[in-house]
Amino acid sequence: MLPLFKVAILGGDGIGPEVIAEGVKVLRAVETLLSGARFELVEHSVGAGEFLRSGDPLPPATLERIREADAILLGAMGLPSVRWPSGVEMTPQIDIREQLDLFNGVRPIRLFHETHSPLKGYGGAGGHPIDFVIIRENCEGLFSERRTPRPSGRDFETDTMKITRRGAERVCRAAFQLALKRRQHCTLVDKANVLPSMAFFRKIFDEIAREYPTVTTDRVYVDAMALFLVQRPESFDVMVTENMFGDILSDLAAGIIGGMGMAPSADVGETYGVFQPSHGTAPTIAGKGIANPIATILSVAMMLEWLDDPETLRGARLIRDAVARVLANPDHCTADLGGKTSTTQMGDLICQALA
Ligand code: ATP
Hints:
- With 355 residues, the chain is of the alpha/beta class.
- It has two domains: 1-102 and 269-355, Isopropylmalate Dehydrogenase, CATH 3.40.718.10; 104-146 and 160-263, Isopropylmalate Dehydrogenase, CATH 3.40.718.
- The protein has helices spanning 16-31, 48-54, 60-67, 92-99, 165-181, 196-209, 222-231, 243-255, 294-307, 310-327, 343-354, and strands spanning 4-12, 38-43, 71-76, 104-110, 131-137, 185-190, 216-221, 238-241, 264-268, 273-277.
- A ten-stranded mixed sheet has the order 2-1-3-10-9-4-5-8-6-7, sandwiched between helices.
- Strand 1 (4-12), helix 1 and strand 2 form a beta-alpha-beta unit.
- The longest helix has 18 residues, at 310-327.
- The chain starts with a strand and ends with a helix.
- Bound molecules: adenosine-5'-triphosphate (ATP).
- Adenosine-5'-triphosphate is lined by residues 15, 19, 78, 251, 259-261, 279-282, 284-285, 291-292, 295, 336.
């Protein structure tokens, strides 16, 4: 019997369903090349659209069914026009991260073609490569009290940067483990010069670093990292940071490789894994057929890698190679990269490259 992997598909809102359709197309194409793995896909309605239908963006019964899956493939969720009374948008994707304890937010940043980057001298023959991974702590940090009920009518609000020993240890370990499989360098990004919570994070990073003597380390303040990501992104391998800093730096990092449509992600814990493009719902381009599906397709590859079966690992490599071959041709560009390739055409090109 071939192993059967059950995958929950959560298209969500805005461009989410459009890019997920291409991710699923590529998953089905790679499945035909794998002699030893099959995928059962089960769709679920979650997001701002689900809130408008049922009054709950993430119904508890749906979350229970999602928990039954081996992996979760997610598009994007939330719409600016659909908000809670407090004024914030629906973010069931963050709720899922917290409820499934997906502490390890993995954000790979890789430049596929020099024309995709706004930076000069990157990619291409003789240019610097951009190839690093941001590890973002997903379950605490500056997001930790976002759902804490607040008295109304106050003339102030606060958010707390909460770093626990357990939270910092496990995310730093995840970063060092990844560095071992890569170029053996790990950078801590913090604000330890100003915030006691960040000084505590640094203390724990230093403790964990001693468990990995072959991995070299450095420590960079988050404001300096915003500068270095533009000036010398080639000098980083794995970096680890708290939730909000990781959120912001992920978008900046996506910008240097072509934009949000190029940046995949995995949010993983001990048991569950959610794989999704780093971008949001991009409502202004939804329904136009121009969204870039590469981030989602690369997230499918991350999902296959995480499933960690010899055949799914092979599938992940096949997808990454197919993406690299398609993007090696600078004519293969969606609108965000300055080209004319549509969302579905890009999915088709990658399926053809796989075949
Ligand atoms: P969120 O707060 O939900 O993370 P965001 O504020 O980061 O969302 P996005 O929806 O990610 O916003 O969009 C940021 C910009 O990137 C927008 O200009 C959007 O049109 C563009 N964008 C995002 N994803 C894609 C994509 N797949 N293809 C093309 N453009 C995209």
